[in-house]
Amino acid sequence: MSQATITHETHHGADGDLAANPAWLELKSAATQLQALQVKDGSVPEATDHARAGELTDTITASITALRPHFEHDGAYLDRLVEDFRGWADAGFGVPDFLDSLQAFQPQLDRVDGLRHLVVFPMYTQNGSANRFVEAILVEVIWPDFIAELEAGAYSNALFVPLRFLDFTPGYDTNSAVLFPESVAMRQTPAFTWGAIFQDREAARYRRVVAAAAEITNLELPAEAAELVADQHLAEETFIMWDMIHDRTHMRGDLPFDPFMIKQRMPFFLYSLEELRCDLTAFRECVKIATSPDSAPEAARHARLVQYAVIFDRIFRFAITGNRVRNYDGLGGQLLFAWMHQHHVLHWTDTKLTIDWDAVPEVVSALGDAIDELYWRSIDRPKLAHWLAAYELVSATLTPNPASVWAKGPDALPLTEPLKEMTNQVLDDEFPLSMFYEALDKKMKPVIESTLGITAADEPAAA
Asked: If pLDDT is split at 50, 70 and 90, which confidence band does 370 have?
């Protein structure tokens, strides 16, 4: 039995079912009620609400104190959290500032399988709520031995924290599958030291969507891909491997001088290429791991599964999730599907989807190589020329909207105007769904909508 397994069982045995703990239930209820008094910036502006807000924050701090013995590893953070809540109340419930408690919370320092955290902050939840309401979540770390070995070797990512939901307030009863420190209400922006992803939500969502899509398209899944869809635990570990490599890629490689992670407005297809670049880097690295004789068996197995996960999540879920307003993740999924189809490894014939899996690694890797080439050339190009080259790469595979100005070429664009005018010319749906995806979307929409707020408990592992 591994040390990780021993630690995991120890934490579960000591903590029991924290989601049913009365102190947690009181905290969750108080935070949810407090949200009704808050406005978008997190403040409680109505003086007549302050007495009630004070009662609710008293309940929250008392609950945190009661739960603290279960989280001695987070003791400094939880003590500071109580102080921040009290300070917010004493100052009259203005815009909250939880910088001090945020800086005391350092989950990346204890990546131990099964280790649990109580996280409470006024914060927005990406793909969930834009309001900085007080949210509370119970989570546990997922850190398998083979991931620890990969991270300690060639795939270092000291800031990456993979998590599983235990319970949450309404801001996470959504599509949000990430916990980032920049979402917390604070007086200034520090250097961020971690980022967390809820692999159980990603895995459960993937399993439900891919199972339905395979049935609808009459796709016969390879044995390992079918196992991935059937097994929640296996899918969680697979998504950890994918996300760990994806996440570290954003600031690696031949990047444009202004990396896309810097907040700036630009045509949404550039964000599509950046996200797809990171996914296809993970894909290519996993091809190497899966075929290397030096890879450990568990790493090689999961590397094969990551390849299925990248393809199926991209072409079945990303492509048709969300609206058609500058949907950069959707565009990336469309691009991957069309690239595979036009390179004759994906076929839609007689209303049946088939994939030539032996040829897939080379073809999919070639798309990653094309994006890398675009990036490599970018430092020798003006920004506008880089944008035009990126559009050419995408439009060589995907058909633009017939109403597109960009599709008419540089002569139709306001090249001498400020760059924002170039961005303004990009249509909200610059690359509409193909006929295949229009039909698939109609059948898959209820399935995708059903994944709102999904967790591992909703898609348990196969027996």
From this structure: very high
Angle at 329 between CA 423 and CA 182, to 5 degrees: 85
Residue type, 71: F
Report the C-alpha gap between 269 and 261 in whole angstroms: 14
- How far is 431 from 105, CA to CA, in rounded Å? 42
Residues 6+ apart with CB under 8 A from 51: none
Q: Is the CB of residue 209 less than 8 Å from the CB of residue 444? A: yes
The residue count of the chain comes to 463
CA dihedral 208, 212, 215, 221 (to 10 degrees): -40
| Among candidate residues 217, 132, 125, the one with its CA nearest the CA of residue 452 | 125
**pTM (2 d.p.):** 0.93
Which of the pair, 31 or 190, is modelled with greater confidence? 31
Residue 462 tokens read as 């196969």
Pairing of strands 129-141, 346-349: unpaired
CA dihedral over 271, 108, 175, 278, signed as positive or negative: positive
What the chain holds in terms of domains, given with CATH numbers, is 3-193 (3.30.540), 203-456 (no CATH)
Q: How confident is the model at residue 9 (pLDDT cuts 50, 70, 90)?
A: very low
Q: Rg of the Cα trace of the chain?
A: 23
Residue 16, pLDDT score? 64
Q: What is the pLDDT at residue 261?
A: 58
Sign (positive or negative) of CA dihedral 46, 49, 55, 59: negative
d(CA 177, CA 182): 15
CA dist 394 and 385 (Å) reads: 14
Q: Both tokens of residue 95?
A: 């815009």
Three-state SS sequence of 149-181: HHHHCCCCCCCEEEEEEEEECHHHCCCCCEECH
Cβ contacts of residue 424 below 8 Å, gap of 6+? Answer: none
Helix, strand, coil percent values for the chain (each to nearest 5): 55, 10, 30
- Residue 11: which of 82, 83, 112 has the closest Cα? 112
28 closest CA partner among 138, 186, 103? 138
CA distance 187 to 196: 22
Distance (Å) of CA 276 to CA 8, 272, 333, 335, 391:
34, 6, 8, 9, 14
Could you tell me which residues are beta bridge partners of residue 247? none
SS3 349: strand
